[in-house]
Design a protein that fits this description.
Blueprint: E1 30-32, E2 39-41, H1 60-82, H2 85-95, H3 98-110, H4 112-125, H5 127-140, H6 142-155, H7 158-168, H8 170-186, H9 193-202, E3 219-223, E4 238-242, H10 243-249
Antiparallel strand pairs: 1-2, 3-4
């Protein structure tokens, strides 16, 4: 039977140590920076809630220099790693192994509360950056985000809540309809029914957004430049959209006519469901 080896013990008593000024030895309101060895007032040290005394060990100047050194070191390390893509691929494959995924999950669960607090504080400190990141993600994954919104809408009973709101706010709906009718009267230009039918024939009776034909949906005239933004009410500012796509477009200025190819069979039709109303 193999005997277990006893843990190795190191004798650290004779190890030389750098001289250090204890906080208790410093004058009141003063502190020594361990990097530059200067005795400075506490105003020269930034606050750090994770420290027992509430202050970061380095003074402000030394902390900036330390951060700059770390950035330069990380930049050099990044260049080395960018020159070795095969290592990146190997590490990505390694992270897919069950034992590594389990380890990542354990780490996440162990530090979940503190990471949640840090993320929330970061979002509050950098709202503009978070909005820009979210906008890039939505633009890159537009169809996925739209499908998620629709699923969220129906799973939370959005249709029922919308019907209840309309039933309880008839006065607000009537005011909105009267305001739209007033904008139509004040808008420049007009178009006739024959012009609208000719426009639908031009686009093969197809919704320019979801690519469904009028046998499946009902086309409605949509103003490319909304009336509320000064758009005209003539046929040159009209595009055929179904009711759902018209409501989704809302008051955005989006011209779907530029994407029309004339042959619906060659177009990529979105796969997300087209039911009910959804406002982006």
């Amino acid at each position: 039977m193999n005997e277990r080896k006893s843990p190795r013990v190191y004798d650290m008593s004779d190890r030389p140590r750098a001289p250090r000024t204890m906080l208790s030895d410093a004058p009141p309101g003063m502190r020594q920076c361990p990097r530059c060895k200067r005795m400075l007032s506490v105003e020269h040290f930034i606050k750090d809630r994770t420290r027992s005394d509430g202050l970061y060990p380095y003074c402000r100047e030394c902390k900036r220099a330390h951060n700059q050194e770390r950035r330069e070191k990380d930049k050099a390390t990044r260049k080395i790693w960018e020159a070795r893509p095969e290592v990146h691929a190997r590490l990505r494959e390694r992270d897919k192994l069950p034992q590594y995924q389990a380890r990542h999950k354990r780490f996440y669960e162990r530090h979940r509360a503190e990471n949640t607090v840090k993320c929330r504080e970061y979002r509050h400190r950098n709202p503009e950056r978070i909005r820009a990141i979210n906008a890039r993600i939505r633009a890159k994954n537009k169809e996925v985000v739209t499908a998620w919104k629709r699923r969220y809408y129906y799973e939370r009973g959005g249709r029922e809540m919308g019907a209840a709101w309309r039933a309880n706010h008839r006065a607000s709906r009537l005011a909105a309809q009267m305001a739209r009718a007033d904008r139509l009267r004040q808008a420049e230009g007009s178009f006739t029914g024959s012009e609208w039918e000719a426009l639908k024939d031009q686009y093969d009776h197809t919704c320019l957004r979801c690519q469904r034909r009028e046998t499946e949906i009902v086309l409605t005239p949509d103003h490319v430049i909304p009336l509320i933004k000064g758009g005209r009410n003539d046929i040159g500012n009209i595009q055929p959209l179904c009711r759902s796509c018209n409501s989704t477009k809302a008051t955005h200025t989006t011209d779907y006519r530029v994407t029309w190819k004339g042959d619906n069979s060659e177009r990529d039709i979105p796969s997300f469901p087209r039911q009910g109303l959804l406002f982006e």
